[in-house]
Design brief:
The structure holds two protein chains of two kinds. By secondary structure, chain A is of the alpha/beta class. In chain A, about 35% of the residues lie in helices and about 25% in strands. In chain A, a hairpin with a 2-residue loop joins β1 and β2. In chain B, α19 packs parallel to α21. In chain B, strands 1-2 form a two-stranded antiparallel sheet. A two-stranded antiparallel sheet of chain B has the order 3-4. A two-stranded antiparallel sheet of chain B has the order 5-6. Chain B has three domains: about 150 residues, Butyryl-CoA Dehydrogenase, subunit A, domain 3 (Up-down Bundle), CATH 1.20.140; about 180 residues, Butyryl-CoA Dehydrogenase, subunit A, domain 3, CATH 1.20.140; about 220 residues, no CATH class. Classes of the chains: A alpha/beta, B mainly alpha. At the A-B interface, β6 and α6 of A face α23, α24 and α29 of B.
Chain lengths: ~240, ~750
């Protein structure tokens, strides 16, 4: 197994999350190793976003726990979780529309007293498009640029673990490929990535490992290649054998 | 730079609408008919609005009949037709409407129309332009030009200016602009002389604004003519023009304005107003001959005043013209010295007057506007000097036009603007109120002052944190009642060690409001937008009803506080200040409070917390994901806003002495929100300007329109404002972008709302 080589960075053990009476997560257990890209797959409503929000501290599990780097973090509020080095790029490109691109990036470094100029430069090297538009209002960017900005803003928080929620949503295939390429680059620079995706084929091609969520439970786990080869995954998410189920 | 010869840039004609949406010929005429009917109805309603007849409250039909069937209604119907024509032929007009000179022309006409229709012209008879025309026709002894002016000349001049300027613009014969300039100057001179003529004949003390408004309006017309004649540009660029003027000699316009104002003050204004007499500077000197006035004031009236004026004016003009920083410092210093000299001369003048002739009243009650005008003009000089002092060093480097340098220039220019504005605002706030009548001083303190503070506080909650709080008045009530309790004005007395004077209660009132703010904030913070608004609305009602119901005999219920809350007192060492029934000292007390609050808030806006608020307002999820503690930031917004209203509550309680729960009703809450929105949400100067304008206007209109109508006029203004300037009077930068979607930094971006789409 490849994962044995990597020390575990994030441990999610048996978490149950409720929205009032609704049990969004029944019992979810998975782990993410240091330096990995792990993909969470699943249909709409399977609980992928809920899982990520629980990790980032926006939601609390009713049972189970989340551990980061050997310490329990469930119950710590979101603005403190970010201090540990877990940066979250929420679903749907939440940029600050009336702030300029530069101001958006500076907001990403909100947890630090000052903006790290080197980090700023690094983000701009990663996203050259943003450099051209530093003075422009974020709301006027295209969808792909906004997604890049959202990722760049999260990177300004110097994450050890980057939570990406559907970075490919509503983007043209070419832009998706571009973004996935950048995720690979970010990962190569030493940032662990937990990726939530519906775009299973591309996500699994990129990820070291993946998990499949179904109605609040992990039903399948394995390396990217294993999952890509799995019949159930092919049937459910790649749409190859529509009749089978 | 486009020249006159090039044709106006035309956009390519858009393709025709799809067949289903194309209008058939008769449908077009139906649209036109509808539009005409709408415009005529609009004109008719306007005619009803500016009816000068006081209606009897139980016979509206008669009043309607009186107004609707008078020939003057034709004028308003004609206005409707003009509007109709304007809308219908807008496609043709718009290519000319953006030419230079059009906007000043419109503004000039607006000012003249307002002066000649709305404003008073002669106070002893309380008449407007039209009323004065009738008086002038009846009286003899006026020069013929005066009668002509009132009869037909002024309106003819306006009409001629419009026709000539319009022709000049449309036919592109710029020379005709000079004709308008001559007409405008002639109109200004005629208005001035006609009004002086009436004053000379009629006598009496006159504070009416009509003639001054008229003069200003005609001067604007003259300026419009000059603009048409001189401007080379195809499209008007007033901002660029202002920038060029300020770049030519920074501060020079302020210096010139200051010089004009100071000259007017020393040469013409009243400096000393004993009963029923107005004495100008020279006559005041004669009046004080032989009194026991001290040597400073006597010298000031004799020669020192003129020397102050000349020295400061020459220094400032030289500094602005030569752009010498050292001279700028000298000019600012001289302005300060001149202000101090003027102030102490005024003080000894009024002391002597109050002591020797008791019927003059108390100190400071017997001075004319002159001395204070002089002080304000020194403020203008200082503002001009501030430009010279803040001059960016990189003027030569600026020509290379690289981005960082031009940004630095822009920053320097902004900071110079800011400094100058602060100096002027301070000069006006310090020296304008003493010139006001007792009535206006009362309005200033009881209305404007309190609401200024409240608007600044609410701006934190609504403008910065983006939380719509409709129950803001509740905190104000908490502050006022805390002060009343601690000064022993409620049935329940505080323990004797807690009994204190009003100013000392401020920290306690702030703490009480902080607690109230957290109490309201903590359970409601999960709510957003409309829901939060409704909950705060309820909170406001609860506080008022609790105060009414007098639980535990604490608030004394609807009877209000008794005994009255004492007036504030301040003792620092041997130095003692007491406030009493006089309004003016309260204004200065408020000014100190406001200054402290504004400086603190200004720093807050640019702090970490300010950025957190901006982030929450923009996108709460993203703010949370960026590590903003949203709960804490929102609670702080509530608490800080609440503590500002505590300050206002203390001020209000100790100034009026008496208050009861009805003063904290929902209407007032909504008024404050209106002030903030009108002024510009999220902008500190905007909130203040909004509160100032909207408290001033209803009081001003009291003497200008029938009292029943004035809320309608205020409403009309607010409506017009929201249509044409939705971001507010002095909008915050970001809010402006939010509403217009037009950002200079994003050229080529297609915005969702077309230009001018606000209508």
């Amino acid at each position: 197994m490849t994962e044995a080589a990597r020390p575990t960075l994030l441990d999610v053990v048996g978490i149950e999350v409720r929205y009032g009476a609704i049990r969004a997560l029944k019992s979810v257990t998975f782990n993410v190793g240091e330096g990995e890209i792990v993909a969470l797959l699943g249909a709409n409503g399977a609980g992928k976003t809920t899982t990520q929000k629980t990790v980032s501290g926006m939601l609390r599990p009713t049972t189970g726990y989340v551990a980061f780097d050997g310490a329990r973090i469930d119950g710590i509020p979101a603005h403190d979780v970010i201090r540990l080095g877990i940066c979250h790029v929420p679903e749907g490109r939440h940029v600050f529309p009336r702030m300029t691109v530069a101001e958006n990036l500076e907001m990403g470094a909100f947890r630090f007293r000052d903006v790290d100029k080197k980090e700023f430069e690094r983000v701009l090297e990663l996203f050259p498009r943003l450099r051209e538009r530093l003075k422009q209002q974020a709301g006027t960017l295209s969808g792909g640029e906004q997604q890049m900005l959202a990722i760049g803003r999260a990177l300004m928080g110097k994450p050890r673990l980057l939570l990406l929620d559907e970075p490919s949503m509503g983007l043209a295939p070419l832009v998706v490929a571009q973004i996935f390429e950048i995720i690979k680059e970010i990962n190569a620079s030493g940032v662990t990535v937990l990726l939530v995706e519906q775009n299973a084929a591309q996500a699994l091609a990129l990820a070291h490992r993946g998990y499949v969520l179904e109605t609040g439970e992990i039903v399948l786990g394995g390396t990217g290649q294993e999952l890509l080869a799995d019949d159930r995954v092919r049937a459910a998410y790649l749409g190859e054998e529509i009749a089978a189920s | 730079m486009t020249t006159l010869e090039t044709p106006p840039t035309t956009t390519p004609t858009p393709p025709p609408p799809p067949p289903a949406m194309r209008r058939a010929g008769n449908e077009t005429s139906r649209v036109l008919l509808k539009r005409l009917a709408g415009c005529l109805i609009g004109g008719f309603v306007l005619g009803l609005m500016v009816n000068s007849k006081e209606g009897s409250p139980d016979d509206f039909g008669f009043v309607f009949h009186q107004t609707a069937l008078k020939p003057r209604m034709l004028i308003f119907l004609a206005i409707g037709v003009v509007i109709f024509a304007g809308i219908t032929f807008w496609g043709y007009l718009r290519q000319h409407a953006r030419r230079p000179g059009v906007r000043p022309l419109g503004m000039g006409i607006l000012v003249i129309v307002v002066s000649q229709v709305v404003l008073n012209w002669y106070d002893p008879q309380t008449v407007k332009f039209n009323g004065l025309r009738k008086l002038v026709d009846k009286s003899s002894g006026l020069s013929s030009t005066t009668t002509w002016f009132f009869d037909w000349l002024s309106w003819t001049l306006v009409a001629l200016s419009v026709v000539v300027t319009g022709a000049a613009i449309v036919t592109r014969r710029r020379v005709f602009g000079w004709v308008t300039t001559v007409l405008g100057i002639a109109g200004a001179v005629l208005a001035w002389t006609a009004h002086s003529d009436v004053l000379d004949l009629g006598g009496g003390i006159d504070h009416s604004l009509g003639a001054y408004g008229d003069v200003i309006g005609f001067l604007i017309l003259a300026g419009a003519g000059a603009t048409v004649a001189l401007s080379q540009a195809e499209v008007a660029d007033s901002r660029g023009f202002m920038t060029r003027v300020m770049e030519y000699r920074p501060g020079l316009p302020f210096a010139v304005l200051g010089a004009v104002l100071a000259a007017f003050s020393y040469a013409r204004n009243c400096w000393f107003a004993p009963v029923n007499r107005n004495l100008d500077f020279a006559k005041t000197h004669d009046a004080y001959q032989g009194t026991d006035i001290n040597s400073l004031a006597s010298n000031y009236l004799g020669w020192l005043g003129w020397v102050c004026f000349v020295v400061v004016a020459v220094l400032t003009l030289a500094a602005t013209y030569l752009r010498q920083r050292l001279l700028g410092w000298l000019a600012a210093g001289a302005a300060l010295v001149a202000t101090v000299l003027t102030f102490f001369s005024l003080k000894s003048m009024t002391d002597v007057a109050a002591k020797s002739v008791p019927q003059f009243g108390k100190s400071w009650n017997n001075l004319g506007a002159g001395g204070f005008t002089a002080c304000i003009s020194y403020g203008l000089f200082a503002a001009a000097a501030a430009y010279v002092i803040a001059r960016p060093k990189t003027r030569a480097a600026g020509k290379s036009a690289t981005l960082p340098v031009s940004r630095a220039l822009e920053k320097a220019r902004n900071s110079a603007n800011m400094k100058a504005l602060i100096v002027i605002a301070l000069a006006v706030a310090l020296f304008y109120p003493p010139m006001l009548s007792q009535y206006w001083q009362n309005v200033l303190v009881t209305q404007m002052a309190v609401y200024l503070l409240l608007a600044v506080g609410l701006n934190v909650v609504v403008g910065w944190a983006g939380l719509l709080d409709l129950g803001y008045i509740a905190f104000y009530a908490v502050g006022a009642y805390t002060t009343a309790y601690l000064t022993g004005s409620l049935p329940r007395k505080p323990p004797s060690w807690l009994h204190m004077t009003p100013l000392l209660t401020i920290p306690f009132a702030i703490v009480a409001c902080l607690i109230a703010g957290v109490l309201l904030g903590a359970p409601t913070l999960r709510l957003r937008g409309d829901y939060l608004a409704i909950v705060t609305l309820g909170f406001g009602e609860i506080i008022q009803i609790v105060a009414q119901n007098n639980p535990g005999n604490f608030t004394n219920g609807p009877r209000g506080v008794e005994p009255p809350v004492p007036h504030p007192k301040l003792e620092i060492g041997g130095w003692k200040i007491t406030w009493g029934l006089d309004n003016l000292p309260y204004w200065y007390l408020l000014l100190v409070m406001l200054a402290i609050v504004v400086v603190l808030f200004y720093r807050l806006e640019n702090s970490r917390l300010g950025r957190a608020w901006a982030a929450i307002r923009e996108d709460e999820v993203a703010a949370q994901a960026s590590g903003v503690n949203t709960v804490r930031a929102k609670l702080l917004a509530f608490a800080i806003g609440a503590s500002t209203s505590a300050l206002a509550g203390t001020f209000f309680a100790s100034q009026t002495g008496f208050f009861d729960p009805t003063q904290f009703d929902i209407f007032t809450s909504i008024l404050i929100v209106a002030y903030v929105v009108f002024g510009g949400m999220g902008s500190l100067p905007g909130a203040m300007a909004g509160a100032a304008v909207l408290t001033w206007l209803p009081e001003f209109l009291k003497s200008q329109v029938p009292t029943d109508d004035r809320q309608m006029w205020v409403g009309a203004l607010v409506l017009a404002m929201m249509i044409f300037r939705p971001a507010g009077l002095l909008p915050a930068k970001r809010r402006k972008a939010e509403l217009s979607h037009l950002d200079e930094a994003s050229p080529g971006e297609v915005s969702a709302i077309p230009r001018g789409g606000a209508m």
